[in-house]
Amino acid sequence: MTDLPPWRRPPRDHFPGVPAWSMPASAVPEERFEVSPIGSVTREWAWGDADGSGVRVCVLDSGVDASHPLVGGLDRAMDVVPGEDGPVVVPTEPGDEAGHGTACASVIRSIAPAVSLTSVRVLAGGKHGTGAALLAGLGWAIDEGYDIINMSLSTTKPQFCDALRELSDRAYFRRCVIVASAHNMPVRSYPWPFAAVISVASHDGPDPMTYYYNPSPPVEFYARGVRVRVAWSGGREILSTGNSFATPHIAGISALILSKHRSLTPFQLKSVLYSAAENVAEPTGGAHVD
């Protein structure tokens, strides 16, 4: 068992007489935890009157310009830099040479204005980064316990697939929700196809709160992503298109849901998103099952 990473090892205090990860039935009632029952899901139930307060969102991207009016400030800004034993994550001054991370942050802020935003720059020099930097930044965000990680990026390099899958599973079991964009081209990339993440592509409608469930995964949801007005570097605003900008719409909506229902697990959150999707919810806003 020592060759397994820490989050995959059996707990140190596992009960003797039962296999690893198991628990005697007599001990189950002793464990207390908060539960969010899911009954008839409406959009009002899911996020009505929520503003994202209490939810910590990490934007894994090119950095974020915290001074942009549409971003509304950051709680933390981090950078992935070379270290003696590989990339390390260190505090940095907020900034974004490319504008991409700033755009994503502005979309999240527009939907969930009270969220706590953190930027982790994994794309050096603006738009390009290494797989090692991506893994370091993602691992740091998971270990820091962020509620939601917005990843409007992916890698096409298969050598990083297994490590990203491990991190995605690690996040899932720690109630850290990864919202990841599908590639803009029909190519295989990661981590968006993994079942442990919430994957997003674009639709061309104008409403930021309208999204659709895709019954033919791996892409699970379609959100607004065509000609979206976003913040950009230099204090500008531009219209931009791409799955990158659909993803923070779902991240923002997820933040609203979690701010109202703090004890939802990742699979419950995904179920709520499914139930409240435009093509699943009844006209009154409630979910239905055919």
Strand order of the largest sheet: 4-3-6-1-7-8-9-11-10
Please report the distance between the alpha carbons of the first and last residues: 45 Å
Range of helix content: 10-25%
Which residues sit in consecutive blocks of at least 5 with pLDDT less than 50?
4-12
- Overall shape: it is globular
User: Topology as H/E string?
Assistant: HEEEEEHEHEHEEEEEEHH
Number of DSSP-assigned strands: 13
Structural class: alpha/beta
Helix tally equals 6
| Radius of gyration computed on alpha carbons | 19 Å
Task: Describe, in plain words, how this protein is organized in 3D.
Helices cover 25% and strands 19% of the residues. The protein is built from six helices and 13 strands. Strand 12 and strand 13 form a beta hairpin. Helix 2 packs parallel to helix 5 and helix 3 runs parallel beside helix 4. The chain is globular, with a radius of gyration of 19 Å.
Describe, in short, the structure shown.
The chain has 290 residues and is α/β, with parallel strands linked by helices. It contains six helices and 13 strands.
List keywords for this structure.
globular, two-stranded antiparallel ribbon, 6 helices, alpha/beta, 25% helix, nine-stranded mixed beta sheet, 290 residues
What secondary-structure arrangement, pairings included, does this model have?
Elements: H1 43-47, E1 56-61, E2 63-64, E3 76-81, E4 88-91, E5 95-96, H2 100-111, E6 116-121, H3 131-143, E7 148-151, H4 161-173, E8 177-181, E9 198-203, E10 212-213, E11 221-224, E12 228-231, E13 237-240, H5 243-260, H6 266-276
Parallel strand pairs: 1-6, 1-7, 3-6, 7-8, 8-9, 9-11
Antiparallel strand pairs: 2-5, 3-4, 10-11, 12-13
